[in-house]
Amino acid sequence: MLLSRFGFAEDKDFRPLFNGKDLSGWELVGCKEGTWKVEGGELVVEKAEGGWLSTDREYKNFVIKLEFNLTPGGNSGVFLRSPRTGNPAYDGLEIQILDHFHEMYHKPGQEIHPAQYTGSVYDVVPASNQKAIKSAGEWNSYEITHNGDQIKVVLNGTTIVDTNLEEQHARIKDHPGIGRKQGYIGLQSHGSKVKFRNLSIRELN
Question: How many separate domains does the chain show?
């Protein structure tokens, strides 16, 4: 069994999206130079004012694996099949990353909605299990499959979304990413420090 530099088992069918050294293979979209950094082999964003980090090429069908670590109240997301223009969470799709039990998301009159919890297809399909996430400061693992209209999200070994987007096609006017067949993969810059590592992808036919 081969081990990655972080000690995790490698799958020969996956290839790295992040080399642990620099931003090779990634491009900034709508954010300033220096927003994203590499520190200790980890991809880090801190105090961003919006924008996102995009792969340098588009993808159709794929499985991606990654790990993320949030600070208290942290907020980010993984964009799927997103264009470089418009809002990637709506013109593409976003798999939410959020320290969703933090008190700031549960103030009277400001309670987050079900499809805003970690693992949800943001504003489209809510995660079925809100307790699969670990506490802020701990590493969480994602395995996200986007194959045709099918999306599956596994958080820390628990499947929390397994849905066919055909069921959401009535919402394409307001959320056109539901109908996209190809686009960029991205990581959201959303004003809080978030760390990522062990990003890899396996393309599907």
Answer: 1
Indicate whether 159 belongs to any domain.
yes
> pLDDT band at 50, cuts 50/70/90?
confident
- Report pLDDT digits (tens) over 79-102: 999 999 999 999 999 999 999 999
Length of the chain: 205
What distance in Å separates the CA atoms of residue 43 and residue 30, rounded to the nearest whole number?
A: 18
Can you list the positions of beta strands (E) in 93-193?
Answer: 93-98, 139-147, 150-155, 158-164, 184-188
Residues with Cβ within 8 Å of 86's Cβ and at least 6 positions away in sequence, in order, are none
Helix (H) or strand (E) holding 50: none
Q: Which domain range does residue 198 map to?
A: 15-203
> Is this prediction's pTM over 0.90?
yes
Count CB neighbours of 167 within 10 A. Answer: 12
Q: What CA–CA distances, in Å, run from 67 to 42, 112, 147, 177, 195?
A: 10, 24, 21, 24, 8
Are the beta carbons of 63 and 200 closer than 8 angstroms?
A: no
DSSP state string for 53-79:
EEESS-BSSEEEEEEEEEPTT-EEEEE
